[in-house]
Design goal:
CATH class of the largest domain: Alpha Beta
CATH topology of the largest domain: Rossmann fold
Structural class: alpha/beta
Distance between the termini: 12 Å
CATH superfamily of the largest domain: Vaccinia Virus protein VP39
Largest sheet: 9 strands, mixed
Number of domains: 4
Helix content: 25-40%
Radius of gyration: 25 Å
InterPro entries: FAD-dep_OxRdtase (IPR006076), FAD/NAD-bd_sf (IPR036188), MnmC-like_methylTransf (IPR008471), SAM-dependent_MTases_sf (IPR029063), tRNA_MAMT_biosynth_bifunc_MnmC (IPR023032), tRNA_MNMC2 (IPR047785), tRNA_S-uridine_synth_MnmC_C (IPR017610)
Family: In the C-terminal section; belongs to the DAO family.
Low-confidence stretches: 1-11
Mean pLDDT: 92
Number of strands: 31
GO molecular function, one term: oxidoreductase activity, acting on the CH-NH group of donors
Strand content: 25-35%
Subcellular location: Cytoplasm
GO cellular component, one term: cytoplasm
């Protein structure tokens, strides 16, 4: 299978929109010399053109699908989305979900977005949630979830002509309504092209609809040629006419026959899978040898993106995964998300050169990462060495074990947990289901099964000959000193050092972690005094600060990480009812939420939260021995 990465997709970060505000407070695009919404009443126009002429309140009452999907050209200020969300809240059945997909070539800066939306006080609450979730200006898809996944937004940043080929293969026959927006065709002709109309047609379900503010002849003809029945209607306000219509097509969608999914595992991957499924109304049977008893069981874990000097598939994936994880933890588990920021010290010349390349490449938005001087490093915390660094302002840390337990608890009655000593094997049954066999002799039938068992995943999937490697890591917990207790953020060097947390009444930090490819499979959880010494020595050597010599180790914990040869997760379906989510390495809490959404979206035939070229990069089949 070819894994050629789309070079257009790896272009530099999209340019943020340049806007001014006119006398009425309406944002105006400098690029297109056009307003973002109607001068008199932008919200009324959005409701009239897009909501009314797609007949939304009626259609999500009568739709046969659990999820109603809206797609849009031109996110802009997000006004159409907020109007749609508000109407959905007020008129949709309680069991219906809204999936909103939008493309934007020039993302607004958060400050401009906030100013623009301040003109609509009745949307203030929803706008606040959007602003908190709003991603960094990075090319690709950014999935945001609201109302515990009842409302999902996939925001695709970049040129629509480059992004559509990355979205469309996974979005055939999924869209119920299109909002054809964007700046006027005479001011932005490059967007209103036949390939956009063709993509609208192929992504629509049967009886899918569209609406647009324009009545331009080229737009009408392009939509008709793509297969839409086009109707002219009275335009909003001073506009004479607008267009709306629908498409008839044969587009049967085979929904999953199973309403229940069995998951083998107990860490962050399993928890995120259970959450993504139960929030969609599916029941989950989790078979586990222990909750967060592997690599997900440490006291503290950093969440930040893995970046390269060039925008590689690896860094592109982690940009998308990080933005999603941050938003997921922040919105669903705010008490466990610590948005402290993360700093990566340039503790030697090689690190400094590598960081300079990352900072100067033009690939990453400064809300994601920025280079700081040695002086700025000490301004963040004067106990740090005078070293230049990379600073990740929107990153932070979580308490892994508590987070996994809390996510599973929030799945409610749709989650059933069965504890076993070990899962020994899985085998296909005569009925085409999967039989999960435990060491105590119990067998469990699974119509649909996902294996997310961390370091034990590949042995359970032995017939597929998937090649991974387990790596032992040991983390050291140290008692906080008077100086270290004031550490305000996660500090990364060759290891990492976390801010102090309350540990049974005392303050401790995590210092980690060793990385051992060779270890005893029987005794890997046994604490090694040499690893404790290594963790402390690395901290002392890389930071070279007196306070690091004063820290006392109080406990250690060892576990296995499962890694892949290309450092990307293994996420996908081996058969139509056997999925795999593994290979998360040491960044599972950054990658697991997005991978879970991807796996569930694939199973349900929903629009997917990642570019098609990246989805292919994650397929577990790439790791089979024959392709190694």
């Amino acid at each position: 299978m070819s894994h050629q990465f789309n070079k257009h997709f790896t272009s530099e970060q999209p340019a943020t929109a340049k806007v001014s505000f006119n006398q009425l407070g309406v944002p105006v695009s400098t690029e297109f010399d056009d307003i973002y919404f109607n001068n008199e009443n932008g919200l009324a126009e959005s409701r009239y053109v897009f909501l009314q002429h797609n007949d939304l309140p009626t259609r999500w009452q009568t739709s046969l699908h659990n999820t109603f999907t809206v797609a849009e050209t031109g996110f802009g200020t997000g006004l159409n989305f907020l109007a749609c969300w508000q109407l959905f809240q007020n008129t949709a059945p309680a069991n219906k979900r809204l999936h909103y997909v939008s493309f934007e070539k020039y993302p607004l800066r958060r400050a401009d977005l906030e100013r623009a939306l301040s003109a609509f006080p009745e949307l203030a609450g929803l706008a606040r949630e959007l602003l908190q979730a709003y991603p960094s200006a990075q090319t690709g898809c950014h999935r945001m979830q609201f109302e515990h996944n009842r409302v999902v937004v996939d925001l695709w940043f970049g040129d629509i002509h480059e992004q559509l080929p990355e979205w469309l293969p996974q979005a055939q026959n999924t869209v119920d309504a299109w909002f054809l927006d964007g700046f006027a065709p005479d001011k932005n002709p490059q967007m209103w092209q036949p390939n956009v109309f063709q993509a609208m047609a192929s992504s629509c379900r049967n009886a899918g609809t569209f609406a647009t503010f324009t009545a331009a002849g080229a737009v009408r003809r392009g939509l008709q040629e793509a297969g839409f029945n086009v109707i002219k209607a009275k335009g909003f306000g001073r506009k004479r006419e607008m267009l709306h219509g629908s498409i008839s097509k044969s587009s049967p969608v085979a929904a999953p026959t199973s309403k229940s999914v069995t998951v083998v595992g107990g860490g962050i991957a399993s928890a995120c899978l259970a959450w993504s499924l139960t929030q969609r109304g599916y029941t989950v049977h989790l078979i586990t040898s222990g909750i967060a008893n592997g690599a997900s069981g440490n006291a503290q874990g950093a969440v930040y993106p893995l970046l390269h000097a060039e925008l590689s598939p690896l860094s592109q994936f982690f940009v998308c995964a990080f933005d999603h994880a941050r938003q997921f933890y922040q919105s669903s588990y705010p008490g466990l998300w610590h948005a402290t920021g993360v700093i990566q010290l340039a503790f030697n010349t090689i690190r400094e050169q590598r960081q300079q390349k990352i900072a100067s490449g033009g690939y990453y938005d400064n809300h994601l990462v920025t280079a700081i001087s040695a002086e700025q490093t000490q301004q963040i915390w004067d106990a740090l060495p005078a070293q230049p660094a990379l600073y990740y302002p929107s990153s932070g840390w979580i308490p892994p074990q508590r987070l996994v337990e809390t996510i599973l608890q929030s799945c409610g009655k749709l989650l059933k947990i069965t504890k076993v000593t070990t899962v020994e094997s899985i085998q296909r049954s005569a009925a085409g289901h999967w039989q999960v066999s435990a060491s105590d002799g119990r067998n469990f039938d699974a119509e649909t099964l996902v294996v997310a068992a961390g370091a034990h995943t590949t042995e359970l999937l032995a017939p597929w000959r998937i090649v991974t490697q387990n790596v032992r890591g040991q983390v050291t917990q140290v008692e906080a000193s008077e100086t270290s207790a004031s550490c305000p953020l996660v500090v990364c060097y060759k290891g990492y050092f976390t801010p102090a947390m309350n540990d049974n009444g005392g303050l401790t930090h995590c210092v980690g972690a060793t990385y051992n490819r060779e270890f005893s499979a029987e005794n890997y959880q046994q604490v090694d005094a040499a690893d404790t010494a290594e963790n402390l020595a690395t901290l002392q050597d890389n930071l070279n600060q007196a306070w690091t010599q004063q820290l006392t180790a109080v406990s250690d914990r060892a576990a296995l990480r499962i890694t892949t040869r290309d450092h990307l997760p293994a996420c996908g379906w081996l058969t139509d009812n056997l999925g795999m989510l593994s290979g998360l390495g040491s960044r599972g809490f950054t990658s697991a939420p997005l991978c879970a959404e991807l796996l569930v979206s694939q199973w349900l035939g929903e629009p997917q939260p990642l570019a098609n070229s990246l989805i292919k990069r994650l397929e577990p089949q790439r790791l089979q021995a024959e392709s190694a």
